Amino acid sequence: MRLVADAEAAGSVAAHGDRPPPDSLRADVERVRADVGVPVSDAMLVAAVLAWVGLFGAVSFEVFGQYGPATFTEPVQVFDALVDLLAHPLGLGRPAEPVNPGPPRGRAPTRRRR
Questions:
Q1: CB 67 within 8 A of CB 114
Q2: Residues ≥6 apart with Cβ < 8 Å to 82
Q3: Of 1, 8, 38, 76, which residue has the fewest beta carbons closer than 10 angstroms?
Q4: Interval 34-82: pLDDT, tens
């Protein structure tokens, strides 16, 4: 959370003020912000929770082989794309790839469960 607050304070990521959390969550957001002790906007706190929950889901699908053979044939690529999408609103995404990136960078393939 400190990383997200620092990025927001430095102005390297927008505060997503156009999509504030609903009024019904205001008390919860205030309490969580106080518990965590990090100065971050309401919208950024909710975006950080979304990223955290999404990351758990992405890891669960990857680890437990939830992508069936009729869906994604390259689960590592799906995982990478999901993590990038979750990180981007927090200012934590990977830098843009160069025009000529050279040989592909990849992780070792995961074992498929049957």
A1: no
A2: 54, 58
A3: 76
A4: 999 989 888 889 889 989 999 999 999 888 888 877 888 888 889 999 9
